[in-house]
Automatic annotation (TrEMBL):
InterPro entries found in the cross-reference section: AB_hydrolase_1, AB_hydrolase_fold, AB_hydrolase_sf
Protein name: Pimeloyl-ACP methyl ester carboxylesterase
Domain of life, source organism: Bacteria
Domain AB hydrolase-1 span(s) in chain numbering: 34-263
Any one Gene Ontology cellular component term annotated for this protein: membrane
Length: 285
């Protein structure tokens, strides 16, 4: 298909799907690569990586349902299964025949379901530290899970927006240098989630829907996935130990290698964009 000319990575675009209008930003030219973020963040997680890949890929940073600029209905299914269905609908609406998928955190669990159920769309798959098989929700996230079920996230979100030190402490386990995160970073990620009671409730419903039966259920399909697969994992991730990178390599027939990033944590696309970009360039070649 024709390549896409570079555009501003800050400009939101929308595509209509059966799941609603899905927001995305894009930059670069070449084959399409869809970048899938996880909970509490949005497509801006990938900004530093996109800068390093825009010469070789049409990088499309999607906002998953109920995050960033992508909304959701008050009774809409927001589970991993639904989010994976949204990715398939997005590809159909964009008229993509094949895409390279790069994913992190809960976005990685969603991407596994998407790839397992819709292998026809997958040109390649790259997974960074993420929810895998029955290893989620992580124990460290249990307080967040309880707050979501009890409808208590609004106060926490507003405090993070008002108090950057509290936000850094809350997100700290996922980043190597949380002290370098700015108030603007947190506003970019969190304001869309806590802008209204409705958006906050959708976030709570998404978190409350976390259930690893969804990823366990697609294991037989994942074990048939022949698409070339790269796994890049931080060795210091407190949520998803590196052993799960090797579980994925053993489960996915198309998996070629595991790249370990020494000392990297969960949000390595933000912390280690140069190393991730280098691994992806080698992989795509």
């Amino acid at each position: 298909m024709p390549t896409k000319q570079p555009s501003s990575p800050d400009e939101y675009k929308y595509v209509a799907t059966e799941f609603g209008n899905i927001a995305y930003r894009e930059a670069g030219s070449g084959p399409p690569a869809i970048l899938v973020h996880g909970v509490l963040l949005n497509g801006h997680l990938w900004d530093r990586l996109i800068e390093r890949l825009a010469d070789v890929r049409r990088c499309i940073a999607i906002d998953i349902l109920a995050h960033g600029a992508t909304g959701a209905g008050s009774d809409q299914d927001l589970s991993f299964d639904a989010q994976a269905g949204m990715l398939a609908a997005f590809c159909t609406a964009m008229k993509f025949e094949k895409v390279d998928v790069v994913a992190n955190d809960s976005g990685g669990g969603i991407a596994q379901i998407f790839a397992a159920r819709h292998p026809e769309f997958i040109g390649s798959l790259a997974l960074t530290d993420c929810d895998t098989h029955d290893n989620w929700p992580p124990k460290q996230a249990e307080p967040l899970h309880r707050l979501a079920k009890d409808g208590g996230l609004g106060a926490i979100g507003r405090r993070m927006l008002d108090d950057v030190a509290f936000a850094r402490a809350s997100f700290g386990p996922g980043f190597e240098c949380p002290e370098q995160l700015s108030s603007e970073d947190f506003r970019t990620w969190l304001e869309p989630l806590f802008k209204s009671p409705a958006s906050t409730r959708n976030l709570e419903r998404f978190i409350a829907s976390f259930d690893n039966r969804q990823t366990v259920a697609v294991e037989p399909l994942l074990r048939k996935l022949e698409a070339p697969t790269l796994i890049v994992w931080g060795t210091a991730d407190a949520f998803f130990p590196v052993k799960w990178a090797y579980w994925l390599r053993g489960a996915i027939p198309g998996a070629r290698k595991v790249v370990e990033l020494e000392g990297a944590k969960l949000f390595l696309p933000w912390d280690r964009p140069a190393e991730l970009a280098s691994a992806l360039r080698d992989f795509w070649q």
